[in-house]
Amino acid sequence: xxxxxxxxxxxxxxxxxxxxxxxxxxxxxxxxxxxxxxxxxxxxxxxxxxxxxxxxxxxxxxxxxxxxxxxxxxxxxxxxxxxxxxxxxxxxxxxxxxxxxxxxxxxxxxxxxxxxxxxxxxxxxxxxxxxxxxxxxxxxxxxxxxxxxxxx
Length: 152
Known about the structure:
By secondary structure, this protein is an alpha+beta fold. The protein has one domain: Endonuclease, Chain A (2-Layer Sandwich), CATH 3.30.870. Helix content is 36%, strand content 22%. The chain has helices spanning 10-16, 30-44, 61-76, 126-142, and strands at residues 50-55, 79-84, 97-101, 105-111, 117-123, 144-145. It has a three-stranded mixed sheet, sandwiched between helices. The chain has a three-stranded antiparallel sheet with strand order 3-4-5, with helices on one face.
């Protein structure tokens, strides 16, 4: 939900200086392999992994970077969609980034104003899960699949 994450990330710095992976997963850093294995293992068991990104337009360099490397998420088996923030204005959204797991738990991620991760919080209460799940489904329905989303 943010438009900037970990501004000092070395991979983001390399991208800003012109480095590209050319949609080739073999050229990705080693740590991507661990994520690919997690996603691949989950999807092989029939788990559907969906990622929705809500972004301002025009997008920031950070979002351009994320869009450029999302091929790796898709190659691993994730379904990824993008929603311009303007199209999410009437959706009651959680106040922070999150991962929802099988509708039974949610991991909220908290960031500082400059985009650095500062904390995480697991929640399992139905009163938290229901609105988070509803918000995600509303976003997913409106969002554009990665292959079709063009950066503004």
